[in-house]
Amino acid sequence: MSDKETFDEEEITKDKPAENKMGTMPVNRLIINIGLPMILSMLVQAFYNIVDSYFVARISDDSAAGSAGTAALVAVGMAFPFQTLLIAFGSGTGVGVNAMLSKALGEKDPATVKKAANNGIFVSIVCAAVFFIIGRFFAGTLIRSQGGEGLTLEYGTAYLSIVCMFSFGIYMQFIFERLLQATGRSFYSMITQMTGAIINIILDPILIFGLFGFPEMKVAGAAVATVTGQIAAALFAFIINLKKNPEVEISFKGFKPDMRTIGRIYSVGVPSIIMMCIGSVMTYCMNRILVSLNSAAVAVFTVYFKLQSLFFMPVFGLNNGLIPILAYNYGAQKRSRMIRAIKVAMAYALGFVAIGFILFEVIPDKLLLIFNTGDPSLLTYGVPALKIIAFHYLIAWFCIVGGTVFQALGNGVYSLIVSVARQLVVLIPAAYILARIGGLALIWWCFPIAELMSFIVTCYFLYRINREIISRVPDLA
């Protein structure tokens, strides 16, 4: 080989962009490398959700008739549907940005990467402004619409208004963390999430009970602790993006919203947003059905969601890592890596929810005592509820990962159909009918019934997406 040919090859190699690890690292190792930091951060978030409710359940109020702790749990439960709605827009926007940005990275298209990042930040700011208005003017109405009254109404209004009015923290946290995840820097994303969670955990007892000279804010203190942690995490994530994420350029010099880019973000993100909004509607309807049976049942439902997060949040963290891996290898035309990633993710997801199933069946009373309000009805209604609900864990893992596959490959509408069918077409009508037939003894079976339907539909859509997309992707080296 001549010196000139050697020189030309060296120049070509030097100019060729290095392959991102999402296209080269062994899949099992990649899933752990990308997913583990997100799983750990999600576990920390699940833990702080539990700590949050642990302290809320111990609120006392001498002026209250009955348990103030139970009223506080019910209040947080009634705020939850609208808090979920708030999170839906941030999470869905992040999903869309993540998928678009990761695919552009796989295609070596830096201009699209920049557009996705900057337009994602812009629409996140718009969402935060909308929820500021909701929190400022409509929080009390939303709690009252679920049957909230007395101390529950007071606590719920305070909590929801604060969470909504300061939602810019969680919106900025979502978008800046997704930029890190899309480029494979999930370790930094984990650090920012853990920072926010730890701040929340530290501030919870201080602000709820008025320690170290701070005023006793009760449920409002839990909300202030939450938004403070979110704002701190957002600032940290922004700084890390500027310093440690060279593949994504954040610059608003001469910026104008690009409707085509925003449209592409939401072509993937809207189904995710709608799915979470459907969850919000489901929770709202369940609260109304349960409060008509016994207000303590709303506290049980709230506690269930807090405990469930210990086992489902890690699966969601795993899925957040799976999305860029699938999107990148789809863009890079590497079919075998896509299939392997799906199988590995499903195996890990099954492991997480299996732990939850066992604990819910064996020690439900011990789990409920974490939220000891002094009200015996929490155990009376809660133990059978957890044992029944746990059965849907046996198939939920498959449906969750399946939905992530749909989103990552640009078919989020499949996830939307599954979610609508599960939570609105089946779960709520089943809950209403079972409540009328057998009250609290039967109502909780609506969860396993709905999950079985979800499993059947997810299997069908996975078959279609494999036939129409995955099987047609070439397997390039």
Structural description of this entry:
The protein has 477 residues and is an all-alpha fold. The chain contains 16 helices and no strands. It has helices spanning 3-15, 27-56, 68-106, 110-144, 150-165, 168-182, 186-209, 219-244, 259-293, 295-331, 335-362, 364-368, 377-389, 393-408, 412-438, 446-468. Helix 9 (259-293) packs antiparallel against helix 10 (295-331) and helix 11 (335-362) runs antiparallel to helix 14. The longest helix is centred in the first third of the chain and has 39 residues, at 68-106. The model is unreliable at 4-17 (pLDDT under 50).
List the helices and strands and how they pair.
Layout: H1 3-15, H2 27-56, H3 68-106, H4 110-144, H5 150-165, H6 168-182, H7 186-209, H8 219-244, H9 259-293, H10 295-331, H11 335-362, H12 364-368, H13 377-389, H14 393-408, H15 412-438, H16 446-468
Helix pairs in contact: 2-7, 2-10, 3-4, 3-5, 3-6, 3-9, 3-10, 4-5, 4-6, 5-8, 6-7, 6-8, 7-8, 9-10, 9-15, 10-11, 10-13, 10-14, 11-14, 14-15, 14-16, 15-16
Look at the helices and sheets and give the structural class.
mainly alpha
Low-confidence stretches: 4-17
Q: Shape, please?
A: globular
| Count of alpha/pi helices | 16
Structural domains: how many = 1
Count the strands?
0
Q: What are the salient characteristics of this protein?
A:
single chain; 477 residues; mainly alpha; 80% helix
Tell me briefly what this model is.
The chain has 477 residues and is mainly alpha-helical. It has helices at residues 3-15, 27-56, 68-106, 110-144, 150-165, 168-182, 186-209, 219-244, 259-293, 295-331, 335-362, 364-368, 377-389, 393-408, 412-438, 446-468. The chain has one domain (24-472).
